[in-house]
Design goal:
Layout lengths: L2 H12 L7 H4 L7 E2 L5 E5 L4 H6 L6 H12 L8 E4 L13 H18 L3 E5 L1 H7 L6 H4 L4 E2 L4 E5 L2 H6 L4 H17 L1
Parallel strand pairs: 2-3, 2-4, 4-6
Antiparallel strand pairs: 1-3, 5-6
The protein binds uracil.
Uracil (URA) binds next to loops.
Length: 186
């Protein structure tokens, strides 16, 4: 079986997930999308309204901005894999609870095992705490490299922070540029 087949099988199996209460309120499970053997794995937080409607990650305003920032950094959205720490939308877009992240972790873990990325870019504190368990401030650790189990972990901001105006797009684009640069020698 290719990694594409394995990912498809995991997707099919995940569609009926009821391992946490978000299973009862979601319209669609947002599994993730992209290349099954991507070197770069982008990890976000949890789906919003548009993602829940469509079943696709990062298709709302933050997603459009993400695609644009990747392009500006010389990366193509088609060449990476994109998913969230939580695959189902938390009501009213609240942050996912710890127990929901924990319930979702086996899917994420299997995605990482199948795709085997070189770099996992954690966008925002939810993703960072999910994989890195760092209590540091994002402003202090974004753009730095951390060693993960079989891949490097690279924290950056969530594109929603740029939409809110708390971070400049240039800062995130520069973070992505460094990822693009590092991929040449990884
Ligand atoms: N995580 C996010 O932060 N946004 C999405 O659209 C999907 C996952």
């Amino acid at each position: 079986m290719t990694s594409k087949d394995n990912l498809q099988a995991l997707y099919t199996q995940s569609l009926t997930c009821q391992n946490c209460e978000l299973g009862a309120t979601r319209k669609n499970l947002v599994f993730g999308e992209g290349k099954a053997d991507a070197g770069i794995f982008l990890l976000g937080e949890a789906p919003g309204a548009k993602e829940d409607e469509t079943g696709r990650p990062f298709v709302g305003r933050a997603g459009e901005l993400l695609t644009e920032m990747l392009t500006q950094a010389g990366l193509d959205r088609q060449d990476v894999y994109i998913t969230g720490s939580c695959k189902c939308r938390p009501p009213k877009n609240r942050n996912p609870y710890k127990r929901e992240l924990a319930a979702c972790r086996p899917i994420l873990q299997q995605q990482l095992e199948i795709i085997k990325p070189q770099v996992v870019v954690c966008m925002g504190l939810v993703a960072i705490h999910n994989l890195l368990d760092k209590k540091a401030r994002l402003a202090d650790i974004h753009g730095q490299w951390f060693e993960g189990p079989g891949y490097k972990i690279y924290p950056t901001y969530h594109p929603a922070a740029v939409l809110r105006g708390t971070v400049k797009a240039e800062v995130m684009i520069e973070d992505f540029r460094r990822v693009a640069e590092a991929m040449k020698s990884l």
